[in-house]
UniProtKB/TrEMBL annotation:
<keyword id="KW-1003">Cell membrane</keyword>
<keyword id="KW-0813">Transport</keyword>
<comment type="similarity">
    <text>Belongs to the binding-protein-dependent transport system permease family.</text>
</comment>
<dbReference type="GO" id="GO:0071916">
    <property type="term" value="F:dipeptide transmembrane transporter activity"/>
</dbReference>
<feature type="transmembrane region" description="Helical">
    <location>
        <begin position="139"/>
        <end position="158"/>
    </location>
</feature>
<feature type="transmembrane region" description="Helical">
    <location>
        <begin position="273"/>
        <end position="298"/>
    </location>
</feature>
<dbReference type="Pfam" id="PF19300">
    <property type="entry name" value="BPD_transp_1_N"/>
</dbReference>
<dbReference type="Pfam" id="PF00528">
    <property type="entry name" value="BPD_transp_1"/>
</dbReference>
<dbReference type="GO" id="GO:0005886">
    <property type="term" value="C:plasma membrane"/>
</dbReference>
<feature type="transmembrane region" description="Helical">
    <location>
        <begin position="318"/>
        <end position="339"/>
    </location>
</feature>
<feature type="transmembrane region" description="Helical">
    <location>
        <begin position="48"/>
        <end position="67"/>
    </location>
</feature>
<dbReference type="InterPro" id="IPR035906">
    <property type="entry name" value="MetI-like_sf"/>
</dbReference>
<protein>
    <submittedName>
        <fullName>Peptide/nickel transport system permease protein</fullName>
    </submittedName>
</protein>
<keyword id="KW-1133">Transmembrane helix</keyword>
<keyword id="KW-0812">Transmembrane</keyword>
<dbReference type="InterPro" id="IPR045621">
    <property type="entry name" value="BPD_transp_1_N"/>
</dbReference>
<dbReference type="InterPro" id="IPR000515">
    <property type="entry name" value="MetI-like"/>
</dbReference>
Length: 367
């Protein structure tokens, strides 16, 4: 066989080198374009987040003022008009509502949640103190619900045609349908009143000085939230798993000789984790809201107790502080989940690019 001419060989090598350089340049351009799209998306989502928080703060302020004058909830019976006027001046509610709103916005900009009407303490400091109960309750309940939901949801999908797969699926449907406060009352009846294994409610005065005692007080509230939240999350995991198991790429991987576990780990987990991220963020915010409700069932001195007391006493700064903190947490978790999805999923980045090109075409047609 004749050897190739040196000139032709050099041209072939140069052509291969140019092809590699063009491919690398195209890859760099694509990554640069995707980075720009993600940056623009981050700016847009951040703007929407700030706008949502501003609208929520304004709406909360107006709704509370519609409920009536908070002075009448604080004064004693038989107070004179002079006493009412003095209390209104002390609380600052005698001024025009526009002036009160401007001061309210100025405080929020400086991260100052104001002073409580009832005890004259800083609302921010009181929220931080109450978080010593609400935050551990939320995080422990969320972790336990995830540990319950992932294996239960996976087995319910993987063995959906067996009796125990059907039983797991039915259990998740039942657990998600029961109100959280009813589950709490049931657990109190069984484990605190009938058997006296655990306390029915309350929290140690020493706070977390004795961790074992504090955790014992949180056991029933944690189980209450984890049962309901874990059931909801297990149904989402089951649905996502069934979707992955029905994909063509998984059957193709099995046909090439890969084991079921290997195919799931290599191909199923990465594709199935994207929708689960948003579900986990929603579940964490739902767990936080559930913790606020459950605290009132078990008499825990957390944010739920603070909010209920503030509403009853018309303590506007405390109500505003707790609701705004909860709003920031819920919207922030949704924002973080959405951004994380866009970063780790190439299909969503392609969607961003497609939306941008479609917008450019519409603008050109309009012009």
């Amino acid at each position: 066989m004749a050897l190739p001419q040196p000139a032709a060989a050099h041209r072939r090598i140069d052509g291969d080198g140019c092809s590699r350089e063009r491919a690398q340049l195209a890859l760099l351009r694509r990554r640069y374009r995707e980075g720009g799209l993600i940056a623009a998306y981050l700016l847009r989502r951040t703007g929407l987040l700030l706008l949502s928080l501003a609208l929520a703060a304004a709406l909360l302020f107006l709704v509370l003022r519609v409920l009536g004058n908070p002075v009448y909830a604080l004064i004693s019976v038989g107070a004179t008009e002079e006493d009412i006027a003095a209390a209104a001046a002390r609380l600052g509610v005698d001024r025009p509502i526009g002036e009160q709103f401007v001061e309210y916005i100025q405080q929020l900009v400086t991260l100052d949640l104001g002073t409580s009407f009832t005890n004259q303490l800083s609302v921010g400091d009181e929220i931080a103190r109450r978080l010593n109960v609400t935050l551990p309750l939320t995080l422990i309940s969320f972790a336990l619900s995830v540990l319950i939901a992932i294996p239960v949801g996976f087995i319910a999908a993987w063995r959906s045609r067996t009796w125990y797969g059907t039983a797991f699926s039915a259990a998740t449907q039942l657990g998600g349908a029961i109100p959280v406060f009813w589950v709490g009352i049931l657990l109190i009846t069984v484990f605190a009143l009938q058997n006296r294994f655990l306390p029915a409610g309350g929290f140690p005065r020493s706070d977390w000085a004795d961790p074992a005692d504090a955790l014992r007080s949180l056991t029933l509230p944690v189980l209450t939230i984890a049962i309901v939240a874990g059931s909801d999350l297990a149904r989402y995991v089951r649905s996502a798993t069934l979707d992955v198991l029905g994909q063509v790429y998984l059957r193709t991987a099995r046909a090439t000789g890969q084991s079921f576990g290997g195919a799931i780990w290599r191909h199923g987990v990465r594709n199935g984790i994207v929708p689960v991220i948003s579900i986990l963020a929603i579940q964490l915010s739902t767990t936080f809201v559930g913790a606020v409700i459950v605290e009132n069932v078990f008499g825990l001195p957390g944010l739920g107790d603070m909010l209920l007391t503030a509403i009853r006493e018309r303590d506007f700064p405390s109500v505003q502080g707790v609701v705004l903190f909860s709003t920031v947490l819920v919207l922030g978790l949704g924002f973080a989940a959405d951004v994380t999805q866009r970063i780790i999923d190439p299909r969503l980045r392609t969607t961003l690019s497609g939306n941008r090109r479609a917008g450019s075409r519409r603008a050109a047609v309009s012009a």
